[in-house]
Design a protein that fits this description.
5 strands; five-stranded antiparallel β-sheet; 1 helix; mainly beta; globular
């Protein structure tokens, strides 16, 4: 799993695995899901991060496992 934050593009991309992307779908304004050939979600892109939360600090991301 890989997480990429692009501050200039104001975007976050979460890649769940390395399988080829065959289709993408915007499921909500600024939220795009990438699908592989088995129709599994393999990536999630969120655009306009700074507009989604007034308290968002991209330099302090935390990983939490439950």
């Amino acid at each position: 799993m890989k997480l990429n934050v692009d501050k200039e593009a104001d975007a976050l991309y979460l890649r769940l695995d390395d399988s080829p992307i065959v289709e993408s779908e915007e499921v909500s304004p600024g939220v795009v899901l990438d699908f592989n050939a088995s129709n599994e979600v393999v990536g999630v892109e969120m655009l306009q991060l700074s507009k989604r939360s007034s308290t968002l600090n991209l330099s302090t991301l935390q990983f939490e496992s439950i």
